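ZP: hey, is the 4-nitrophenyl phosphate complex queued? I don't see it on the tracker
AM: it wasn't, my bad. submitting now with these inputs:
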Amino acid sequence: MPPPSVLFVCLGNICRSPLAEAALRAAAKRAGAGLLIDSAGTGDWHLGHAPDRRAQAVAARAGIDISALRARQVAAEDFRRFDHIVAMDRQNLADLRRIAPPDGRARLSLLLDHVPGRAGQSVADPYFGEAAGFEATWRDVTAGTQALLRLLLGPD
Ligand code: 4NP
């Protein structure tokens, strides 16, 4: 059986989805779970760029180096390759639904759908805000990915 696979998607793939990728990778490692994890953006402005410095800083404070990640754009093939495509906000989710190919098999959700009491909520876009916004992003992606990991691993 191939490991469960998850693609996180935001707008630029330089702030929220790289942090979700890092948070799930760290949680899966702690749990000893093998998962295939990646992230991408719906937009193409930052292709090939490293994560935003403020995202790198908040991850570094959690002991995680995300400096080697590079932004890419979500592609039709992703809908066939991944079990789950997890959007950061409602606009990302709407964009994913619009571009999903007819033979896509990935299950689409919002990250915070997986957190009890937060279904339908977006992870706010921190790009144009203050540095503190990235702390809120980290809290949201930590809560979301922990809940997602429980879902992927199933009841024990
Ligand atoms: P992200 O944040 O979607 O969390 O990576 C953004 C990054 C860049 C832009 C917007 C949001 N931008 O407009 O360039």
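AM: back. The chain is about 40% helix and 15% strand.
ZP: great, adding it to the tracker
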